[in-house]
Design goal:
By secondary structure, the protein is mainly beta. The chain has no helices and ten strands. The chain has strands at 3-7, 10-13, 18-25, 34-39, 46-51, 57-59, 67-72, 77-82, 91-97, 106-111. Strands 2-10-9-4-5-6 form a six-stranded mixed beta sheet, with no helix packed on it. Strands 1-3-8-7 form a four-stranded antiparallel beta sheet, with no helix packed on it. Strand 4 (34-39) and strand 5 form a beta hairpin. The radius of gyration is 13 Å and the shape is globular. The termini are far apart.
Length: 112
């Protein structure tokens, strides 16, 4: 089991960019798939992107071509680069491992 801490959220204008980080402590991410999820007010949690231990990636259709997930195993960190942000991207973003660990989330607000 690892502890996850998300960071990098904030307020950005439509069309802007943010980079989220998910950093592990108490263990390594090297053997885990790591996913990013988001939850907007009044909505369920939505899967956004996933990166596998070998580096392969998957994206939800809603973010494909705008978001990029990457990992730095030496830093025990997974990143989510978010470009061309839209108001509908506003949510609390969480990271999670395939081992079932979750972070506390980081807020992303997109102003129109």
């Amino acid at each position: 089991q690892v502890q996850l801490v998300e960071s990098g959220g904030g307020l950005v204008q439509t069309g802007g960019s943010l980079r989220l980080s998910c950093t592990a402590s108490g263990g390594t991410l090297i053997n885990y798939s790591v996913g990013w999820y988001r939850q907007a007010p009044g909505k369920g949690r939505e899967w956004v992107a996933r990166i596998y231990p070998g580096g392969a990636t998957d994206y939800a259709d809603s973010v494909k071509g705008r978001f990029t997930i990457s990992r730095d195993n030496a830093k025990k960190t997974v990143y989510l680069q978010m470009n061309s942000l839209k108001p509908e991207d506003a949510a609390v973003y969480y990271c999670s491992t395939s081992g079932g660990d979750w972070g506390q989330g980081t807020q992303v607000t997109v102003s129109s």
